[in-house]
Amino acid sequence: MTKETKDSLVKGTLILTVAALVARFLGVFQRIPLVHLLHEGGMGSYSIAFNLYSILLVVATAGIPSALSKMVSEKYAIGRPAEAERIYRAAIWFAIVAGALMTALLYVFAPIYAERISHGGPDATLATRAIAPAMLFFPLIAIMRGYFQGRQNMMPNGVSQVVEQIFRLVTSIGLAFILLNISLGWGVAGASFGGVMGGIAALAVMLYYAMKLRRRDAASLKENVSRAAAEETAAGRSTASAATPARYSEIYRSLLKLSIPIVIFSVTVTLVYAIDTSIIIPLLEGTIGSGEALGLVGIIGGRAQSLAGIPIILAIALSQSVVPIISAAYSRKDMKQVGHQTTRVLQLSILSGLPAVLVIAIAARPLDFFMFGHEDTAYGMSHGPYMISLLTLGAMFQIVMQTSGAVLMGMGRMKPLMLHVAVGIAVKLAGSFLLAPWLGIYGIIGSTGLCFIAMSWLNLRTLRKEVRFTILGRRFIGLTISIVVIAGLGVAAEWLTHTYVQPTGLYRINEGINAVLVCGFTAALYPLMLMLTRVVTKDDVKNFPAPVQKLIGKASRLIGRS
């Protein structure tokens, strides 16, 4: 791979990572006032609607943009821009039809899912129908993002994500505040409708960049046509007629063949989270009551899933960047390079994701109470932080699943990957129904972790049959020691601050101070322990993002090893 290609990948990954971080931050920030306005019951209805919408959105969009990106980049690489544009137009029509169908499906079947399956009540139905029009826009946005990715232009994708979240945040909070004067159900619907406004704003951004690119392409085409005509005239040849354009049916066949496996893999996490919000009330209302169970749905969807989604952001960006690298090396039968890149991406994703997992899991109580406030009930208050911790710990295995799955995708090993997804979902369902009567909400959350563990193990087992790689090797012992020490000291620090650090009369200010102290202490311990136990070497540090390199360098100097 040339330096130019590497630089392009690094730049694209950096743009997507920064955009994802900003969008995730805005998404978490949005939940803070919504939790205050809607409380746990309202957030339960909101989460039921949002997770169903997320599943249909993934089904309608995931895979097609990736397949479109691959096909467009290939056509431009071999000098056939007209074919690339025809593929793009076909995908646009697909997005319009898919969006209309998914909107109608979401609106019509909202009561069945929200009330009969999830037991969320009429408020959940109203919230689901309020967010349904967003499906008109997001398939189209996803197709445009895939096209720009194929043109090696990541900026529109990143900007549109951030603008979408800004408009979603402002309108969700504003409409929830205004419509709560009517009823709680209308307030929840207003919060859901913020997704529609976010979609409109994101589409406006994509259309702006599309028109900008079209003007640039027109100028470039005019210049190329003039040059080609001059060359043809000088050579005494006539321009050959264009090749017969591909039929839309052929284009759709190619797109679907590439995209369906990607959809199945991409929908996994969203589906697992939706299963959680769908089964909590049916499984637990008999023991804790429907009101408490709906509150737990609000805690899971409004608090835990938001925070647990932070550590996987870098893993997703790494997964997006490693697929073309693995694919190119595998197509050349360069298995040594495949093994090297597999080792590199797994190590980097684990070592980069682990500190966020530890920080959030250990500081769950002060983070929860500072960001969202105390839960509405004594039951929720006593269990909420532990639910966040447990779900965040499971995100570590989600990181391994995501990156190992991306490697399999790059190698074209989609059949085993789809089988692993099926096994993981089966483990999730079986674990939830078996463990919930025994462990309650922790059985449901624990089964989510078991799902990701099963998929990770199956992915790694399949990879080992194809290529030689190591994740950490002998350094696994040092990493285990580091985790145990950090967890022990971090939990002790959290207990001490929670018990003794209460400098003001305002509990949220106190919890904010405690969150800063615990998070800072845990984050500082991480590079120190990695260096002390020799888990991280100088070669590993060179592959880390620049800010992480600086942090580890300072930690290294602190303990006297440069």
TrEMBL record:
Protein name from the UniProt record: Stage V sporulation protein B
Membrane topology: Multi-pass membrane protein
Chief localisation class: membrane
Transmembrane segments: 12-30, 50-69, 90-110, 130-148, 169-187, 193-211, 262-284, 304-327, 348-367, 387-410, 417-435, 441-460, 472-493, 513-532
Pfam families in the record: Polysacc_synt (PF01943)
Keywords, alphabetical: Cell membrane, Membrane, Transmembrane, Transmembrane helix
Domain of life: Bacteria
KW Signal (keyword) present: no
PANTHER family reported for this sequence: LIPID II FLIPPASE MURJ, PST FAMILY PREDICTED COLANIC ACID TRANSPORTER
Subcellular location: Cell membrane
